[in-house]
Amino acid sequence: MSRRLSSVLTGSILAALLAASVPTIVHAQAQKPTAPAKPGAKPAAPSTPAAQQPTYTPNHLALAREVTLSSGIARSFDSILPAFGQQIKQAAITRPDLTKDLDEVLTSLAPEMELQKQMMIETAAKIYASRLSEAELTEIVAFFHSAAGKRYVETQPQVLDEIVQAMQNWTQGVSEYMMVRVRAEMGKRGHELQ
Prior knowledge:
The protein is built from 8 helices and no strands. The chain is an all-alpha fold and 194 residues long.
C-alpha cells in the first residue's frame, strides 16, 4: 500500500473517531452569541477572496467525492442529523403534547436535511481534492472498489469501536505508568511527589 493511501486510511479513521463529537461541537458553536450588526454597517468580507479559491476539474472533484462516499466518511454524516433531531425531541420532553407535531415536522424536514448532508459531502470532497491529486484519488478509489477496500469500509465501525476502547485503556495505563516512573526518577533526585 502506498504511503499516501495509508495516510488517507489513517485520516479516515480519525475522521470517523471525531464524527461522534461533531454534534456536541456544532451545538456548542451554535450557542455562541454573535454580536449584532451595527446599523448601516457593511457585511464582513469573506476571509478568503473568491479569486484565491482553488479550482478543480470536474473529474478531480468527482474522484474526491467518490473517495468521500466509498471510504465510509460520508456514513459518519448520516448519524449527525438524526442526533440533532433526537436532541430537539429530548428538549421537548417536558411538553408531551408536542410529540406528534414535532415528529411530523422532523419528518417533513428530512429532504432539507439531506441537502445539508450533501453540502457537507461536497465540502469533504473539496478538502480531499485540495490535498490529493487526481492520480492519487484514482488510486484510492480503486482501492475502495477492491475487495479489500470494501472489506475495510465494512469493518471500519467495529474496528473504530475497538480502537477507541483500546485507546481509553491504553491512556489510563500509560498515565499511571508515567506517574509511577516520574515519582521514581524524582525520588532519585531527592524530591517526593504526591
